[in-house]
Amino acid sequence: MTTVNVHEAKTNFSSLLARLETNGQPIVICRNGTPVADLVPHRRGSRIKPHPALSKIKIAYDAVAPLADDEWPEVAR
Fold first, then answer.
1. What's the pTM value of the predicted model, to 2 decimals?
2. Total of domains in the chain
3. Which of 49, 57, 63, 75 measures 20 to 30 Å from 38, CA to CA?
């Protein structure tokens, strides 16, 4: 893990991004020796895996079943 101060991060931001893309190692940005931020590679989420909150939703009926005649609104009959 690389550690840089704020001034160095501002001055060499493009090269820090290039280094991050190359080796994927996080870079810690410090102010007066105290870590204030992490520069980490972006992780693209899976578009196939459903979101965890969606697994909590339960539908108690068949959402694609056709409506019976008496379930249609009056204007649509």
1. 0.59
2. 1
3. 49
